[in-house]
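Notes, p. 3: input format for complexes.
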Amino acid sequence: MSDEPLVLGIETSCDETGVGIVRGHTLLADQIASSVEQHARFGGVVPEVASRAHLEAIVPTMRRALDEAKVTLNDIDAIAVTAGPGLAGALLVGVAAAKGYALAADKPIYGVNHLAAHVAVDTLEHGPLPEPAVAMLVSGGHSSLLLVDDLTAGVTPLGATIDDAAGEAFDKVARLLGLGFPGGPVIDRLAREGDRGAISFPRGLTAPKDFAKHRFDFSFSGLKTAVARWVEARERSGEPVPAADVAASFQDAVCDVLTAKALDACREHGVETLIIGGGVAANSRLRLLAEERAAKFGIRVRVPRPQLCTDNGAMVAALGSHLVAAGIAPSRLDLPADSAMALTSIAVAG
Amino acid sequence: MTAALAEVGGGGLRGLGERRVVDPRAHGELLAPQIQRVLADAGKAPRDLGAIVAGLGPGPFTGLRVGLATAAAMGQALGIPAYGVCTLDALGRAAGPGRVLVATDARRREVYFATYQDGVRVTGPEVAKPADVPVDAERAVGEGAVKYSEIFGIPIDDRVLYPSGEALIALALGEIGAGAEGGVLTPLYLRRPDAVAATERKHVLQ
Ligand SMILES: [Zn+2]
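Output follows (556 residues plus zinc ion):
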């Protein structure tokens, strides 16, 4: 048997109830229950609905994860749980359950940062993290560029969206085109049949005047409005809306800005590895464009497989395993959930 | 928030300890340490537990979920049953004989309520504005009854305000004694989620 730590991770920051189990960098179980269908008709996540779903799902999801990994709670060396950031009521369910498991099974507990977990999950696919690295996290909830010097101590935020998250823009444009929720996968699919050069949509915060203050920040609100105006103008003139071209052109605008800024951050900080995580990392255009552009500068792009990019328990376990291996002290049993947890805190101090 | 420990046997129970904190913001942080302390004070460990009893409410959703998630997780980890009981029943039982209305504060100018005959629930639990509660009792108990005493128009017994942990355990004595299988712990929400879409999803996460 290996002497690497066996760590269990619990994730409930948004609409996925995730329980993952890892040994060192090896993924043993990754079970998810999603409430996404219950939110679909609202076009976004309803916090109370998400909290109710987490409570219903946590015990069965835990059972499936333990079964999949063929271990018991007694075998586990440490329990990690997302302490923040995220939806306050949703986080509380996971944290309370994690405390119940930790208390009953007499295990150390780590309250960890969700965004750092999105970075750590890549170790399950590609091994130890080369540090420093730049991480770009893009999803319905986040659009962040981070400098990762030491994933046990803290992460430096380089930039973030100043309005909508990237995934939110996908959701809103999908709704505009009548494609349903969540928007990312449908737009990606439809865009393959469209011409990404058909319509020239704005690239937010890329003008020379933005360089000083918002070099690594994102803005997708103007893009979303531009798409809405373009579609409305078409409808008003009685012409058909070329949905595939709109999807492709919109997607290209998002991916162009994301990859340009991410690689600019890598070069500015002399970093040779770019890690992409979050649900939008599953976007095929984003992956392709990132790799094409990175290759020109000799930068390596690491993107975990799509199941690991979206919210899950495995990423929380991966970060927990990283912290245990580094000898970081566990959190205390009175650790709080913190919906606005800062990146300067990777784990709630013990 | 209450954590209580009791020894159950011979159809009765013997209290071993109980701790209470009235701080609605602290559930998520303090419940597990409080359970740990109640056990330690009695010289017990979690593995000594044979069953867990949790109040299903009705009450504030966030606090209920913290309690039920903790109880369900502990039950699963220890391989012991977890039983859910209606929290108002503890008050109804404590209120004694006769016909009693139990009302607790549901915020939003509403109360959670149920009616009891000699400690046994005969209607409810439900949620309503105090003026809309069908009052069919000789007296009322609970903080909701105290708060809206003028509206209910029946005598208020203000000695019964919060359910004790030991009273919750007492409500599950039958199941514990029979070694019944634990149930799924779902809060008695009595209200649907506000059907308003989250417009700014996880905005803080930027
Ligand atoms: Zn996430």
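Chain A has a mean pLDDT of 95.
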